[in-house]
Design a protein that fits this description.
Layout lengths: L4 E4 L6 E5 L4 H12 L7 H18 L9 H12 L2 H4 L3 H19 E6 L3 H8 L5 E5 L3 H10 L9 E3 L10 H11 L6 E5 L2 H10 L3 E5 L15 E3 L5 H4 L6
Parallel strand pairs: 1-4, 1-6, 4-5, 6-7, 7-8
Antiparallel strand pairs: 2-3
Length: 246
Amino acid sequence: MDIRAVAFDVNGTLVRILADDDEERIFRGAAHFLTYQGIDLHRHELRDLYFQIKKEQLRASPEEYPEFDVVSIWRSIIEDHGTDFTRALPAGKLTQMPLLLAEMCRGISRRRLGLYPYVREVLDVLRERYPLALVTDAQSAYARGELHKVGLLGYFNPIIVSGDHGYRKPDRRLFQLALDGMGVAAENALFVGNDMHRDIFGAREAGLTTVMLNSDQGAKAYRDCAPDYTITDFRDLLPILGLPLP
């Protein structure tokens, strides 16, 4: 192999996260917050609106693997249900409120956030030798804050977030954006992920060499797709690249 750059999935590969975006307590908190913005919606009503708009976004998308826009969902709710009190709020507050709601709801939904074993030690070795990138199915309202929380934000350039583009993995365009950002051809890049469909199939379709991290998250089979390598310990990535263990 002539590997000159390495790209990674995030959740289930580098970061162990548990979040349930359907919990009642999320929409109770959001409904209480909106009360102070002049919007009176019961938590069940708010939940139904949120998922209805999300479904409409996905249905209207022309993409094969569509992605939703969480900030746009909250913006629609505020615009459609705002009162004179809401519209009299400072313009800057109104502009930021959809993002604030997205971040708040994600925070309420999150039960776990941390790194898998040895991730930082391995990345410290790799970043001295390779450009590193991320390709993640996520919303920017969540992804960058969570990467900052676990101390990984500074390791990667570019960071490709599906929510910024309107489509998700396994769409090969996301992988190509990472390749373009790192300035390498697909045959010179390695992709590490935990989901056989979204990560391994997608990266293989884009021409990258693939490594399947068999973590506690993600689909482990998809059709007849197989990775070039499979690991269960993050440190096992280094010998694949001909590097010594730290």
